[in-house]
Amino acid sequence: MNHTEKLTRYTANFVDELVAAGVTDAVISPGSRSTPMAMTMTEHPDLKQWVIIDERSAAFFALGMAKQTKRPVAIVCTSGTAAANYFPAIVEAHYSRVPLIVLTADRPHELRDVGAPQSIGQLELYGDYPKWFHEMALPEAGEDMLGYVRNKASRAVQTAAQGNAGPVHLNFPFREPLIPDFSLEDLWGDREGGPYRARTEGKRRLDSQQLEQISKKLASSGKGLIICGPQTDPDLTEALAVLAREWEVPVLADPLSQLRAGSHPKDYMIEGYDAFLRSETIRKQLKPDYIIRFGAMPVSKAYLFFIKEHKDIPQFVVENHGGYREPAGNHTEFIDADAATLCRDLANHKPAIASNDAWLATWKRMNRISKEWLQEQDGRNGLTEGGAIRSLMQVIPDNSSIYIGNSMAVRDLDTFFMSTSASLEVLANRGANGIDGMVSSGIGAAASGKPVTLVLGDLSFFHDMNGLLAAKHYGLNITILVVNNNGGGIFSFLPQVNHQDHFETLFGTPLDIDFQHAVNMYGGTYHQPASLPELEETLEKSYQHRGLSVVEVKTDRTENLEWHRNKWQAIENELLQDRG
């Protein structure tokens, strides 16, 4: 058997096993050393290939796709710095628990550390961020080696998806010649007998004694608080709504909790807490007896202040598969159990949990007043950063997704996204909270075919404009709402704004770019509405348009800061006057 046949059978069996294990999509970046893997993937009848030229964009595209589909996505690149460009997305996948199968081609061992071109140290290139790294053996085609390569493919998919999902990294040393021979008989080999393919993962559940112990710890005067941070489990929303109703406890629902939208009951949902918890006086008034949190830490900085000021409060954090997500440093009891199942089980322990009507009424009243102020239309026909979010929520299609950018975008969504019965999923890159790769991530989510609206600031848009190529190349439908305050608007809310000698150069960083030219270059449609009615009309039309639609809303950073502060001050004033 010659080299080409060994290479072909080895690679074909690996790719076929990826498909057998559930991989449906592969994102490929062009390169020579990755030729065997790239060409073989394009030959497989059950694998969809997406060719994204830039590796950083490709990895974030795959990340967005994996978030949307809830399935592992494979990414393939050549050797050298191509692989290094995957790093930011791998970091994000690690922290946001997204399954990626990272497949890097490499020089064979004899070409390493000898000055060969496009050869860098790729062994464990991504450090501790992958859940598993494996240096693949050189291609062979004996029965044992074909079993080996299938086992590694299957294990990669299982490891990426099981427990807390995340990236895995397999490094492939390939010798030349690199062109496979697809005329071989029985090209895809034998799927039978793969011992690592089958795995059944059960859900963690507390026994009756453990449930009783937790219920006793929570039994109190009834001033409890449930928090739901960023999470994507569709089973949790209904279960948590039932728990809140049975316990009669308010639920602080993060915009990424999936609790603010959907058909589940929302009587106990508090979505305006970021606005009124900005008041130190109100934070002191609302000291709870206990806190139980589901999902990651909420976006709200006001909530972070709230829990830091109440370090003595018993706090319970629920993790489906373990982990440590408690940045406040408070004393915390972690509960490792399936969140939805735990909610249902705890709901059955209602007699052990005291309720407090006045406590619940206070949270509901503060939420109602805050929402009234936040929903009030004012300022430049409502064409503010908050107004842009409110307009979006008026016209966004049912059964669609919002992919929200970081910095100001996600905070404005937190503030102005009110509860709705519409079926909306909210996605974000809140693992490492970076602004890089946002365009590619949103377009990757849109590749699933589900309507996606990407909302981000001008810096995030600029940072990843080359991600627009995928929308053009594949004719993907996506609406991108760019809120352009000409720089880093988030810094206007931070102490750096008080140092005006350096602020604009180091933090404000105005771009002064006409984005319309970039949108035209990538074949998209561009609109810059001048009023709130025009914005809503433009967004509605964008959902009827095939392909890329970019809607830009221009705002002023200074005006935006004052507008937000006036809202928060008005809310605090009314709540403090209305107390008692």
Automatic annotation (TrEMBL):
Record key words, sorted: Magnesium, Manganese, Menaquinone biosynthesis, Metal-binding, Thiamine pyrophosphate, Transferase
Catalytic activities: isochorismate + 2-oxoglutarate + H(+) = 5-enolpyruvoyl-6-hydroxy-2-succinyl-cyclohex-3-ene-1-carboxylate + CO2
Pfam families: TPP_enzyme_C (PF02775), TPP_enzyme_M_2 (PF16582), TPP_enzyme_N (PF02776)
UniProt cross-references to NCBIfam families, sorted A to Z: menD (TIGR00173)
Magnesium listed as a keyword: yes
The protein's Enzyme Commission number: 2.2.1.9
SUBUNIT field: Homodimer.
Name of the protein in question: 2-succinyl-5-enolpyruvyl-6-hydroxy-3-cyclohexene-1-carboxylate synthase
Organism, scientific name: Lentibacillus juripiscarius
Matches recorded under HAMAP family: MenD
Domain Thiamine pyrophosphate enzyme TPP-binding residues, every copy: 439-553
MF GO annotations: 2-succinyl-5-enolpyruvyl-6-hydroxy-3-cyclohexene-1-carboxylic-acid synthase activity
Functional pathway: Quinol/quinone metabolism; menaquinone biosynthesis; Quinol/quinone metabolism; 1,4-dihydroxy-2-naphthoate biosynthesis; 1,4-dihydroxy-2-naphthoate from chorismate: step 2/7
CC cofactor note: Binds 1 thiamine pyrophosphate per subunit.
Residue spans crossing the bilayer: none
Cofactor (UniProt): thiamine diphosphate; Mg(2+); Mn(2+)
Source superkingdom: Bacteria
CDD domains in alphabetical order: TPP_PYR_MenD, TPP_SHCHC_synthase
Record-annotated Menaquinone biosynthesis protein MenD middle domain positions: 219-404
Gene3D superfamilies, alphabetized: 3.40.50.970, TPP-binding domain
Function field: Catalyzes the thiamine diphosphate-dependent decarboxylation of 2-oxoglutarate and the subsequent addition of the resulting succinic semialdehyde-thiamine pyrophosphate anion to isochorismate to yield 2-succinyl-5-enolpyruvyl-6-hydroxy-3-cyclohexene-1-carboxylate (SEPHCHC).
Thiamine pyrophosphate enzyme N-terminal TPP-binding domain mapped to chain residues: 13-123
InterPro entries the UniProt entry points to: DHS-like_NAD/FAD-binding_dom, MenaQ_synth_MenD, MenD_middle, THDP-binding, Thiamin_PyroP_enz_TPP-bd_dom, TPP_enzyme_TPP-bd
Family the entry assigns: Belongs to the TPP enzyme family. MenD subfamily.
